[in-house]
From TrEMBL:
Originating organism: Forsythia ovata
Entries under InterPro entries matching the protein: Calcineurin-like_PHP, Metallo-depent_PP-like, PAP14/16/28/29
Phylogenetic lineage: Eukaryota, Viridiplantae, Streptophyta, Embryophyta, Tracheophyta
Record-annotated Calcineurin-like phosphoesterase domain positions: 58-329
CDD domains: MPP_Dcr2
Position of the signal peptide: 1-26
Superkingdom per UniProt: Eukaryota
Keyword Cytoplasm: no
Pfam families assigned: Metallophos
Name of the molecule in the record: Inactive purple acid phosphatase 16
Keyword field: Signal
Length: 391
């Protein structure tokens, strides 16, 4: 749960944005994070095809649960965002990944008191964009949540003076001060229209309100036809609709994987935000079993509300190597489940509950022979929990 200060201090979001933008770009003052993404060299081809160089591994950094925009009206909330930018910049500097995945809860929309939460989303992707690294994102349960008026605002100190732009209606500013939350479609539109480095996309309309369900192909730069791996992204719900991966999404995966990878020869790697109920089954209890690898085992798994078939489909496909989720900030383990691995990322953001040290899970994909390796890179630079997720 977010922490709230007892003494609200109003800070205009524009000031916060400027502060964060300068923090994000402190290593290169010439970079303009707004609109100049096309000046960076693309390491991959556009559309849904990622390329890796022959003989070089393809490295992915997972940024989970950044929670930008938490308690923006306090003095400590915006500082959390500055610290989250520093975590991402450190990880990007140390690992130099080819690709970044934003694994949901990029923003704490239920704390964001401006009309368009994309401004905070934009800040969250700014360290990756500033380094010219392409990325993809999925939604978490906080990303499209409507604003929740804090109880503390109704105490003797009163509701803070809100900065509402003047509207054209007789009730000036009414629309812009209603803070209804920014929809998944609006957030996705803003990310993809303003960033040539973004590989995120809306999934098929038949899957909505689930939006971020799509697939990317990883192939060799020398041969875009030959796939090295398929990366599948799922919207696991939450916020404006239940926390679930629907049977329609499971069916979509079944059909899509049969279409693009009919003999299941190409490995498949899966990403979504909220752990499925299967995570509860393999979660270490009492003591850490030998077959799980991680460093924090501090919580019960907060699983999706229902299981509607996705795990049966994934578990029945030998090409599926691993699933990666965020959501539980106090868990960072990988445990085997059937013939695949279920993994948590690592809490990357200073926003969101928990004070466990921040870091990011890294994936390394090698081709010929295929291997999927993972470890966690911490904010202080050290590495741990290395595990081979393919064999
Ligand atoms: Zn979270």
């Amino acid at each position: 749960m977010p922490k709230f200060s007892n003494s609200p201090l109003i800070i205009q979001w524009s000031v916060i944005c400027l502060f964060l933008i300068s923090a994000a770009n402190s290593d290169d003052p010439q970079l303009n994070i707004h609109g100049n993404a096309q000046t960076f060299a693309l390491r991959t081809t556009p559309e849904n095809n990622l390329r890796m160089r022959q003989g070089s591994p393809f490295k992915i950094a997972l940024f989970a649960d950044l929670h930008f925009g938490e308690a923006a009206w306090t003095n400590w909330g915006p500082l959390q965002d500055v610290n989250s930018v520093k975590v991402m910049s450190t990880v990007l500097d140390k690992e130099n990944p080819d690709f970044v995945i934003y694994l949901g809860d990029v923003i704490t929309a239920n704390n964001i008191m401006i009309k368009n939460a994309s401004l905070y989303w934009d800040l969250a992707v700014s360290p990756t964009r500033a380094k010219g690294i392409p990325w993809a994102s999925v939604f978490g349960n906080h990303d499209d949540a409507p604003f929740e008026w804090p109880m503390e605002w109704f105490s003797a100190t009163g509701v803070p003076q809100l900065q509402c732009p003047a509207g054209s209606t007789s009730y000036a500013g009414g629309e812009d001060c209603s803070f209804r939350g920014t929809t998944r479609l609006e957030l996705m539109k803003s990310e993809t229209e303003h960033n040539t480095l973004s590989y995120s996309r809306n999934g098929p309309q038949t899957l909505w309100p689930s939006v971020s369900s799509y697939v990317l192909k990883l192939s060799l730069s020398s041969d875009s036809e030959a796939a090295v791996a398929y990366l599948y992204f799922f919207d696991s719900g939450g916020g404006s609709y239940p926390e679930v991966i629907s049977s329609a999404q499971a069916k979509w995966f079944q059909q899509k994987s049969a279409e693009v990878n009919p003999d299941a020869r190409v490995p498949e790697i899966i990403f979504w935000h909220i752990p499925s109920k299967a995570y509860k089954k393999v979660a270490p209890r009492f003591s850490v079993p030998n077959n799980c690898i991680g460093s924090i085992f501090m919580e019960d798994v907060a699983a999706q509300e229902a299981e509607m078939g996705i795990m049966r489909v994934l578990g029945g496909r030998p090409s599926v190597k691993a699933v990666f989720v965020g959501h539980n900030h106090g868990l960072d383990w990988c445990c085997p489940y059937k013939k695949l691995w279920l993994c948590f990322a690592r809490h990357t953001g200073y926003g969101g509950y928990g004070d466990w040290p921040r870091g990011a899970r890294i994936l390394e994909i090698n081709q010929q022979p295929f291997s999927l390796k993972s470890w966690i890179r911490m904010e202080d630079g050290h590495l741990h929990s290395e595990v081979l997720l393919s064999s």
